[in-house]
């Protein structure tokens, strides 16, 4: 999809729709909650994360910020200040209810609870009368100005017809409809009426909202994306196909094809039991040959509309059309009509979206194991444009192609430098759309203006180029070619450099070493891979890296910022000699006392794995490890993941000795000394207010890796070959990095390197964006004080429950062009070595880090008198950082959703194994991975389906609301044939009248919930033994049941 552009209105205000201020909803605001005007009477607190608002009728609604479409701040105060004559409103107060007469003289009865809420909020009951009048007036505005509203789409689209995507704000449209002037802003009622019109006309206007949490700011001036004319025409076409009882011929043909594919999906065997020694069930497939089935262009139009229903954010027009015209005409449960009422048992608001995902899998458009997180992210506002292979933009695939071309050219050039023998001459490689050097020169700018190529336009729109006055020869000669550079590289010769990572890691980008000088000083060195040794800032790969911003890692595949062909070879610290080294000395108190930064050459690289290194390090400094086995058995550890990991570590230590390479005296001595220096620095941070949190974490991997990407426009259904297996899912519940010494040591070394970089940039006045965090917000009572007092003085870790109790008081991470303090890290500007904090340790996957490497090298050359100009101004560095920070947040969100999907897939497979009669050993420990590199990555759960559809676990009550899934599972065996059922330890986090939310403590913190059970009382922090009740990975749903009524 094309990048979104913003529209500047033709009015005198010249307001830009794309820039929307955020406001925090407060008591007394008028809010449109689920399309109904309300008065906010209570805001979230640490104990209750939801708002409470009153409707016109006085009914109390609990809701989240994401349920609010429009807000008029301070509205009740404005209304309360206006006098109301006694003849217009008569109010009487009584117990237990309060009554009020609305503008149409009908009596509104206010419940006692609502009256109490108004009193607590110090809002008079008469506000509901004002609210009723406001609602009636907004309706009248919609009627009286209906004709002008109906012309809004044409007016705004025509004004910016050249833009591929136009964004308008509520105020933009209101000013045009009501002919407001610069000095005459639209009234709240006019804005409300405009928002109501735009929200209802989703065929032409798509809401843009990024409010995802229950308590977060919302847009003060909501924005809407004008759907393109082609999309509006497509919606009109589907309307024509579904109009009346008799459907169109194209839809009839598609439905016939869909029924055939659905019947085949339902006839396919669901569970393959041969892997655990049970005779496989043979099912006679009525439909076995898909050779005659192919998708026509018309079929693809219907498929695209089904994708819209599945993945576009609610509300969207596709759900209604797909429900009414397609799903209602299909067999196997699709024809059930959805409930339009919210229930306690399921996400009915998007249940038909889930049905659409199921249909796409039955049709063979998506694979049975499809992770839909990226497809959903495409339509959730703020697209990840640079991700190739998913039709997220019209330039992403071209960017990947060009990056690979330039990566191959660099590899050939490297071969030409190191050897006279090269397989492919440079001139025979494919040509790229981007040429070297890339600068914002007038000629290049004009060339891009004259082309319609999407990639070149994306580069011009999003990439901020280095200064056009910077000599490209300087970059190539002095920075790119280290052998010719007068910027000297320090040769670390035979000093061992330890690169510590997981066994499957390919992108090795950091190493650590220790050095004892002749003068008696001890230096700790952090060596970071140096892609800028070969990529100057004016290289096309630099422009493409900035365009993408960051790499994104998912369990089934990754999307690199720099081509893998480079990151895994000439940029890999295990295979290259070039690095940028950040060196420091640690003082007696643990603070840093000296530093150096130097381009370097590292020759003696030792590649080690975390769990091997753990075997030679000191565990006494790790949270939870200082207690004996008997103390653990007595229940010392109140969190399951700590106890579970420590038990497994002790068992593995007893069974497996360290590898021979790790036990070499010089290596183990270096690692132990590096750990002592890192621990001393960590203790200094803790003494200055820093701490880590005891948070569980899991790691999930999928093999084969990477999985193929499903075609965006398939020509025929995906046919599941009988011999083909679903991917193996490997799950490791012990991925909490603070619970192992090797991870603690490496992460602390990276913190020191980042402090060194911040110190250098601050002293040398290098354009930089520093990272920080404000102290905790003020809280009533001693909640914060009590939590801080719980920090373990040995490990610097705050226990889980204490940390969760103060999460609402945390300030968001911040950035600044000047050094700022970082509360959680214990780094305070002005104290000791402190000059703030920044990040420079991941240049292979973060463009911001690579940019800082260029700027640091530039400054080193300035010290030698080699250059006098800057690559990037401070303003440009900040602009680049802000844009890429937004990309990073979206990437992390998709990555988190993908990890949750595969975690639920793993849990579901385990549950199916149990229900289908698998042996206890398989249910508990999965299957053994044949690849030795995967042996330590967790428990492997195999694929179970040999047909297009895999089973979905629903309890019957829940299934009745989401209307998805067969009514019975024919593959299940009787209870007598099942082994012991898998149980999980559920840690209670939040309690409401409807359900209890929490995490599976012994499963790495996978999020889940329990429905409220009569007679069962829960408290924050309780640990409850549960079993799986309902699970669906595609919907992100995991509901547990309390099988053993035991609360710890």
Automatic annotation (TrEMBL):
<dbReference type="GO" id="GO:0000175">
    <property type="term" value="F:3'-5'-RNA exonuclease activity"/>
</dbReference>
<dbReference type="GO" id="GO:0003723">
    <property type="term" value="F:RNA binding"/>
</dbReference>
<dbReference type="Pfam" id="PF00773">
    <property type="entry name" value="RNB"/>
</dbReference>
<dbReference type="InterPro" id="IPR012340">
    <property type="entry name" value="NA-bd_OB-fold"/>
</dbReference>
<dbReference type="GO" id="GO:0006402">
    <property type="term" value="P:mRNA catabolic process"/>
</dbReference>
<protein>
    <recommendedName>
        <fullName>RNB domain-containing protein</fullName>
    </recommendedName>
</protein>
<feature type="domain" description="RNB">
    <location>
        <begin position="489"/>
        <end position="862"/>
    </location>
</feature>
<dbReference type="GO" id="GO:0000932">
    <property type="term" value="C:P-body"/>
</dbReference>
<dbReference type="InterPro" id="IPR050180">
    <property type="entry name" value="RNR_Ribonuclease"/>
</dbReference>
<dbReference type="InterPro" id="IPR001900">
    <property type="entry name" value="RNase_II/R"/>
</dbReference>
